[in-house]
Structures are given as C-alpha cells and as structure tokens.
Amino acid sequence: MTSEKTWIRQRREHEYGLAAAVFCEQDQLIQAETIVGADCFQDRFLAAIYRIGCRLSVAGELTLPKLRAHLRADGWLAIATEAEAFIKLKNSLSSQVLWHANELRRLDTLERMRAVLEAAHQEVQSLVCNPNDLQEGVLAKLKGLQVDQADLYEHTLEVGRRVHKRHRKHFDSGSQESIGIGTGIPKLDKATGGYFPQQLWQIAARSFYGKTTFALNLVSHLAGKGQVPVYFASYEMSAEELQERLFAEALAIELGKFTRGELEERELDEIFNKMTIFEKMPLFIDEKPPPTVEGLAAKVNLAKRKDGIQVLVVDHIQIMPKRRGVERHEHLAQLARDFKNLAKEQELVVIILNQLNAQAQEDGEPTNLHFAAGKAVIESLDVSLLLHRQDESSEYMEVIISKNKKGALERIPMRFDGAYQRVEEWIGVRPTDEPMDKPMEEPTRSRKKKAHA
Question: Which one of 188, 220, 249, 431 has the fewest beta carbons within 10 angstroms of its own beta carbon?
Fold first, then answer.
C-alpha cells in the first residue's frame, strides 16, 4: 500500500510543478487550469501563485512584477520564508505542465474517492444500513467526482486557437491526405475527412456479409501504416480467429486453409518470418470484454494510459448482453448513447459494428431503418456505413454512407475478397447497370412500413 508520506510527496511534486509553470510555461498555463484548479492544491501558498498566475495569464497581463504585487497585496509575501520560496520557484524550471495538471487532478480525485469509501465502510460497520441504498449512494458520489468545474466549459478563444493550430499544421505539412486520421480508403476519407477524436462510427451489414472483414481492414491500416493504437473488443470471435483473418489479409493466404488446418510448410514459414509486422502494430485484442459499456470503458481507459489507445472497435453491439426487463430496441439505443459518451469523455474514435435485419436484402439495399432501434441509434452516430452486396458470394460491395455529419451521403464501390479477407476500392466498370453515383434516398412511406414489419 502507498504510505501517507508517499501520497503527500507526490502531491507536493505536482503542485510545485504547476506553480513553477507560472514563471516558465505560461503558454500552457490556461490549458492546465482547464484540467485542475487551484482548489485542488493543499499548499495554500503554491495555490495562490497558481490561481493569480492563471488569472493574469487569461487577462494577458502576467508579468513577474504584477504577480509579486498581487501576492504581496494578498499577504503571501509578508514573511521571509514565503519570499524565499517565491524566489526558489522563480528560478526553477518546470516541464510537462499538462502532465502535472492531470496527475494532480488524478490524485485529488483518488483522495476524494478514499473519503467516500471510508465513509461507506463506517456505515457497513454500523450494521444498520440498507445495502441497496448504500450501493446507490456510493456509486452516485463516485460518479459525481468525475464531473469537475473545469470540464463544464471552455472559452471559445482557446477552442479557436486549437482549431487554427491544427489546420495550420496540416497546411504547413503540405499533406494531400485528410486532416483526420486516415481510414485507408481515399474516397471515404474525402467524404468524411477521416476519423476524428470523440466521433462514433457504425459499420452495419447482414450476417456473413463482411462487416468484421471490413473493420479488420480498417484496423490493419490504422495500426499498421498509420501506427494508431487500436483496442478491438470482440464479443463474437476469439482472438485467434481474428488473428487468422489478419494473417490471411496481410500475407495473402486463403482463410480456408486456417479453418481446415491445411497450411503448407512454406506458408507457416512465411507467417513466422513476417511476425515482426504484427509485433510493430499497436493493435490490442480483447476476446472477453466486459458485458457493459461502463466495464469496457474502464478497461479501455487503462489501456489508453498504458498504450495510448486512440481507437476502440466493438464487434458487435447486438451480442452485448442486455439487462433483464429492458426491451431490445431500448437496449441498443442506450448502447449507442453510452458509446458516444465514451468517445467524448475519453477523446477516442469509437467504431461499433451492427447487424442489419433480413428485410434489408428483400428491399434491395439497406437503409437506416434496417437495424433494430435504427432511428434512435442513428441519432448518436457521427458516421454510419452500410455494407451492401447482392448476395454472400458477390465480390462487388457498396459502402453506403447513410449518415455523415461532416459531409455528403455517398456510395463507395469496393471489391470484397472473402477468401483472402481483403476489401479494396473497386477499379473498373461496375458489374451492374445501375449508375455509380446513384444518390442516397430517404425511404418512402411504404418502404418504412415494410422495414418495420
């Protein structure tokens, strides 16, 4: 267990680092204050320097003489020891300001949690409390600790500076790629701008129509070429099944050979020799994810701290268990809302896989009405991709963008190769007479009625 002395020492280190930032890291000071406020400090002198420094920085008036004047006016430089501490801070060099801010906030939250749990322990010891009431009370208090005044709002000037900085960096790089994280499909990037933190994407298709294969191709590009850390939560397949699909796609080995146990020696040697490809990929597979979004969020948060996770893929939401007494439509709608909240809270890209109903095939092509709780789910999404093939054997796949907050609704022709688990942009003439640029249409009243039947 961490001793009280260690706790105090770590707190002091981060408080000192933030106070020192007033003198040498003023450009990050405003951002640090949005993470942790002076009220989290235990050392009142360091808190005063941080609070006054942040206030002057926001006003654009932070200078050493003004800081000294304010501290003196508030009585903080009245005695020699505090004056000496001020000089020591002024001459120190702070680094990793935002790290200090995040760590101090974390320690402060843990301390508050400890107080809540200690109070609950005392109630348990009394033997007179109601277990259900105690549990609900503790959970409410712990959840309340996650909401901080610093999280409630942000000045538009800071948001504007951040947006300008991101676009300026993209412009100066001379890159012709999307400003977001690339999907690996140029036409999809052009339509959506790529992935952006806090977005919720959906990939939906009929059973056996390629949604997991399509998702794994996106993941291979992200973690491979893009070197973007990805957490793949699989509620359907085992980690080994997913890895076999990754091998098939990356090494051009027929997936059926893995299924039947017919790999040849040269193929086994190739898998062994190319293992370094996967060693360098920041891809993490969870074949036994928690049954709830809350549980999954906790695991992903740990993985984010340890491995820098930026993208979460969930395969697929209709398999996630629902609570007893909750209707299926309501369950799926709540899952979509919860995953959107997870994306925003942890600043991740979340990609959920969903299953279309049989009516999608009978109606000719899928729409947003062809999955359970379609209207409620679509409200939470930033981008929705519906995968359409004429049948299970068809190699022609159409990616229908049925929702796109950042752009138009489009159709992207793709080639699906189930044998080798590859999905790539279609080149050449489309194998049907329908025009490639057929616009997205809203379902007619009769189709709506039929889809809900």
Answer: 431
